[in-house]
Amino acid sequence: MIIVNSVFDLRATIHTWKQDGLRVALVATMGNLHAGHLKLVNSAKQKADKVVVSIFVNPTQFGVNEDFASYPRTEQEDQLKLATENTDLLFLPAITDIYSANAKTTVNVSGLSDSYCGASRPGHFSGVATIVCKLFNLVQPDIAVFGLKDFQQFTVIKTMVNDLNIPIELMGVDTQRESNGLAMSSRNNYLTDSERQLAPQLYQTLCVAQTAILAGQQSYAAIEQQAIQTLKKAGFTPDYFTVCNSHDLSSATQQDKELVILAAAKLGTTRLIDNVYFSL
Ligand code: PAF
C-alpha cells in the first residue's frame, strides 16, 4: 500500500494508473476504521483495479459545539487494517493541503441539506459536499463508494454528482451491523456500557416500523409517533423518525413505493443515526 500525504504525489500516482488504463475507486473516510469501512474497500476492489482510501477528519462538516477535536484519530491502526484489505493507496492529507486560508467556494445542495440531520447540524452537508467534491477533483476516480448508513449523505452526494455532471459512478453499500443489529459507527465508541445495551433498540424500532408498513399500515404519521414514543421510553432523545421517499427524501405518501425510514436519536451525548430502506 502506498501512503501519500501531498496532493502532488497523489496526482502523480493516479496519473500513471490512468495512463495504464486502470479503473480507480475512491473510498472517502474520516478514519477510525471499522468493519463497515473495510466492507466499502472490498466492494470498491470488486469494481476497480486500484482502490484509493482517504482519511481526513474534515473540519468543515462539524458544527462549533460538535466533536471535531475529540473525533477518534487512530491512524496507525487504520493503516494496518487497510494494508491487509487490498488498499492500493492511502491518502492522508493535512488540513492545509485541502483548504487554503482564502478559499471562497463551497458546495451546497439546497433543500436536501436542510432537513433531518441538516436541521440539527446546520452547515454539515455543505461541509460534506464540499470535501467530497474536492476529493473527487483530486482523485478523479471512476467510481466512489459510500456507506448507506448515512443515507441522507449519500442522497446529497448523488444529487451533487447529477447536478454538477461529475463523471463518477456512485455505489452505495449496505450498513454493516453488530450481531445485535447496531449499525457500526465510529461514534459508537462514545457510548457507555449501559448505552451500548440500549443502542440496538434504534434499529429494532426501525424494523418494527418497516414491518407495520409492509403489513399495510397506511398512517405513516401514526407509525412515526409510535416509534418516537418507543425510543423515548427506552431512554433515547429522538431527533427525527420519518418515513420518506427514498429517491428525494420527501415525506412519503401512499403513492411512493420506494421508501426509506430515517432516524436519529441521542443516547446521553452520543447522536446515533440509522435507516431501513425497502420497496412496497
Ligand atoms: O462519511 C464520512 O465519513 C464523511 O462524511 C466523508 C464522506 C468521508 C466526508 O468527510
Core attributes:
binds pantoate; globular; alpha/beta; three-stranded antiparallel sheet; 38% helix; six-stranded parallel sheet; Pantoate--beta-alanine Ligase, Chain: A,domain 2; Rossmann fold; 280 residues; 9 strands; single chain; 10 helices; 20% strand
What do we call the CATH topology of the largest domain? Rossmann fold
Task: State the CATH architecture of the largest domain.
Answer: 3-Layer(aba) Sandwich
Beta-strand residue percentage: 15-25%
Strand order of the largest sheet: 1-4-3-2-5-6
Largest pleated sheet? 6 strands, parallel
Ions, cofactors, ligands: which are bound? pantoate
What oligomeric arrangement do these chains adopt? single chain
CATH class of the largest domain: Alpha Beta
| Count of separate DSSP helical elements | 10
- Total number of β-strand segments? 9
Tell me the domain tally.
2
Structural class: alpha/beta
Anisotropy-based shape: globular
CATH superfamily membership of the largest domain, which one?
HUPs
Distance between the termini: 44 Å
Order of helices and strands: EHEHEHEHHHEHEHHHEEE
Helix content: 25-40%
Radius of gyration: 19 Å
Description:
The protein is α/β, with parallel strands linked by helices. It folds into two domains: 2-173, HUPs (Rossmann fold, 3-Layer(aba) Sandwich); 186-279, Pantoate-beta-alanine ligase, C-terminal domain (Pantoate--beta-alanine Ligase, Chain: A,domain 2, 2-Layer Sandwich). The protein contains ten helices and nine strands. It has helices spanning 7-19, 35-47, 75-83, 95-98, 117-120, 124-139, 151-163, 193-198, 201-214, 220-234; strands spanning 2-4, 24-29, 50-55, 89-91, 143-147, 169-173, 237-245, 258-267, 270-279. The strands form two sheets. The protein has a six-stranded parallel β-sheet with strand order 1-4-3-2-5-6, with helices on both faces. Helix 7 (151-163) links the parallel strand 5 and strand 6. Helix 6 (124-139) packs across helix 7 (151-163) and helix 9 runs antiparallel to helix 10. The longest helix is centred in the middle third of the chain and has 16 residues, at 124-139. The radius of gyration is 19 Å and the shape is globular. The mean pLDDT is 97. The site of pantoate has 10 residues, from strand 2 and helix 6.
